[in-house]
Acetolactate synthase small subunit
Amino acid sequence: MNMNANLLPTGSAYFLTQQTQEPERHTLTVLVDNEPGVLARVVGLFSARGFNIDSLTVSETEHDKHRSRITVVTVATPKILAQIKLQLERLVPVHKVHDLTAEGNAIERELALVKVAGVGEHRVEALRLADAFRAQVIDASTESFVFEVTGKSSKVEQFISLMAPLGLVEVVRTGLAAITRGSEGM
């Protein structure tokens, strides 16, 4: 008897495992106690499974309670992502875990400092593009600029790629900061 998934009756339990397991990009926020070793434990959950962290930002956000917010961007299958979230929730210093991608309705922004060296036409073009991207000049000399650009990661990427032929020297990025829309907090 051929047990091809296409031939199984619609009431079969085999369809429960026929979910798409393609890797997806997700933004997770984790509220943790601000104490030594917590970040290493959180990051260890990802590295133990061989998953890369595309972006990582951490800062104390609740000073009176000594809590920090970790924002992690990673690419994983839904099954692995569910395991990671469950294991994060089990860590003692973790208070809350949110998958902003799955919950939807999140605002994501990134900041980058972009150093561009150039003279003449390249200098003029760099300033023109910076204006179009609403990038701020935060340092200038007769030979270079440092621009501050904020926005979605795709906007930051596009700005950097346009600066490359104009004399891109160096880029520093903060990583993603994300928050849900609406009146409710984490």
